[in-house]
Amino acid sequence: MKLFRIWINSYLHPIRILDEIANNKINTGLILSLLRGICLSLFFYLPFYFLNIEPITPAYLQIFDTPKYFLYAAFFWPMFGLLSCIYLSAISYVLFKILQYNPNFDKILNLNGLLSLSIGIVIIIFDWFMVVINYHSNPIVMGVSHIIIADLWSIALSSIFYKKHFAIPTWLTIICILLIRILFIPIAIIFIRT
Q1: Which string of b and e fits 102-131 if b means at least 16 CB within 10 Å?
Q2: What is the pLDDT of residue 45?
């Protein structure tokens, strides 16, 4: 029940919930990230598979070049999302350490887990809206829309969080998030098809 409250309050009281997750155990971020993967599997990938919706992006690995991609994704995405959250959190942590700030990996992981779940659910709803209005088949529109939704939201909340907890200036947070997105794009292109 506590995780549900955290998730709902990430929309209703985002600043207050940022302070709360900063003091939670590391497993909070991991569980939130895993919940996002489970929601994505149950409410996006499995329905897409059963509705015979074809991925609109190409497969870069032979194993994913199959009409059953969405079925496979339903099983590997929760773990992929969890590992991605750890990877992206580690990049932030190392970058801030190199720049001689005093980051805390647990807090970064909790923030990224929360953002993964709260933004991820909104993107699932957005994607279904695009399917309903028959606009999901345009990869440019979908990609740009996801970037606008995820990055602006992520930058805003991360800037507040990093400034308050690690004294990291907003401009550096923006650069960090954009760098992380650039480093994640090759991985996303290989594993994620929509």
Answers
A1: ebebbbbbbbbbbbbbbbbbebbeebeebb
A2: 94
Looking at the predicted structure, is the pLDDT value of residue 193 above 80?
A: no
Packing angle of the helix pair 139-166, 105-132 (nearest 10 deg) = 150
Q: Is residue 4 part of a domain?
A: no
Instruction: Report the number of distinct structural domains present in the chain.
Output: 1
Identify the three-state secondary structure at position 13.
Answer: coil
DSSP 73-126: HHHHHHHHHHHHHHHHHHHHHHHHHHTT----HHHHHHHHHHHHHHHHHHHHHH
pTM of the model: 0.92
Mean pLDDT along residues 67-78? 91
Lowest mean pLDDT, pick from 28-32, 63-67, 137-141, 154-158: 63-67
Could you list the residue range(s) of the whole structural domain that residue 61 is in? 29-191
